Amino acid sequence: MSTNEFDPQQYKAATQQLWQEMAPAWHKWSSLLSELNRDITDQMLDLAGIRAGSRVLEIAAGDGDQSIAAARRVGPDGYVLATDISSNLLAYAASVAEEAGLANLETRVMDGENLELEDNSFDAVICRSGLMLMPDPKAAMAEIYRVLRSGGRVSAFVSSTPEKNPWLGLSVTIVRKHAQLPPLPPGRPGTFSLGAPGVFEGIFHEAGFQGVVTHYVSGSLPLSSAAECVEFLKDIGLNSVLESLSEEEQQQAWVEVEQVLRQLEGPDGFVSPTEGIIGAGFK
After folding, report:
1. Share of the chain above pLDDT 90, in %
2. pLDDT tops 90 at residue 3
3. DSSP per residue over 114-146, as a string?
4. Pick from 114, 90, 154, 129: which is nearest to 9 by CA?
5. Which domain holds residue 70?
6. For residues 151 and 153, what is the distance between their CA atoms, to the nearest angstrom?
7. Residue 52 is assigned to a structural domain of this protein
8. Lesser CB count within 10 Å: N end or C end of the chain?
């Protein structure tokens, strides 16, 4: 296969394996990620119309931060199904739900582009930071539309652009340079693949959703130092881009990343601006 070809199934298999392997490292940052995304999560649950008694599906639920929030909101008469391609991540969600006594949350391994669920079976669907990593987000949105009941709502969040998220945008550029990889071409899955103006909104409309709204959400990523940001980047999977390099070459790449990220250090430690897009619509 040439470097210009893209195999969605191969990508999915590799992505699933990666998340399985890095689940413990990802979960290590769960408290930080939960706090950073608290406002985003609340806005998404509101836009999806989630309330007591709702049946909710989450796609790309990860270790379940947002699923837990939804389960608390729907209460004992509601139901939340947390799905992800990684059983190891979902195991954390199930464990947290059990510890919290949330019997209304179920986890199930599932491909967001091929939901093994009945038509018209959920009141709301949510997806935080998942659609942009799928090879065919339009297919995922079509599946979301299918499983929603008439009047049901979807709410999702994606990152905007590299420039608005320098902690990651700068790092990805450096790491891909060291790995001798070109920038991702348009249409390929990646953190910023749905961030260009109009793209995210467009997949809602194409799937048939009505009353589509999108708005930008700005925030910040606060860490103790650029060095801690490098640790975070490794744990959330950026190290996989360098796996073909020698240990010395990988170390050289991370040294350069840390040097560049130091421009985001100040009196209060490391702080990077962040920006994403929340979108919502109804069936």
Report:
1. 95
2. no
3. B--S-TT-EEEEEEES-GGGSS-HHHHHHHHHH
4. 114
5. 8-161+189-220+275-282
6. 7
7. yes
8. N
Q: State how many domains the chain has.
A: 1
Of 99, 111, 28, 27, which Cα lies nearest the Cα of 64? 27
2 pLDDT exceeds 70?
no
Asked if residue 178 belongs to a domain, the reply is: no
Geometric angle at alpha carbon 207, from 164 and 108, rounded to 5°: 80
The pLDDT confidence band at residue 187, using thresholds 50, 70 and 90, is confident
Q: Could you tell me which residues are beta bridge partners of residue 163?
A: none
Cβ–Cβ < 8 Å for 264, 211 = no
Quote the tokens at residue 215: 């708005």
pLDDT at 159 over 90: yes
Question: Tens of pLDDT along 198-222?
Answer: 999 999 999 999 999 999 999 999 9
Residues 130, 59 contacting (CB under 8 angstroms): yes
Residue 81, domain member (yes or no): yes
Show the tokens assigned to 223: 């860490």
Nearest-angstrom CA–CA distance, 21 and 88:
8
Average pLDDT, the chain: 95
Q: What CATH number does the domain containing 92 carry?
A: 3.40.50.150
Q: What is the pTM of this model?
A: 0.95
Task: Give me the helices (H) in the chain, please.
Answer: 8-27, 30-36, 38-47, 65-74, 87-99, 137-147, 166-178, 199-207, 226-235, 247-261
- Cβ neighbors of 150 (< 8 A, separation 6 or more) are 120, 283
Whether the CB-CB separation of 208 and 148 falls below 8 Å is answered with: no
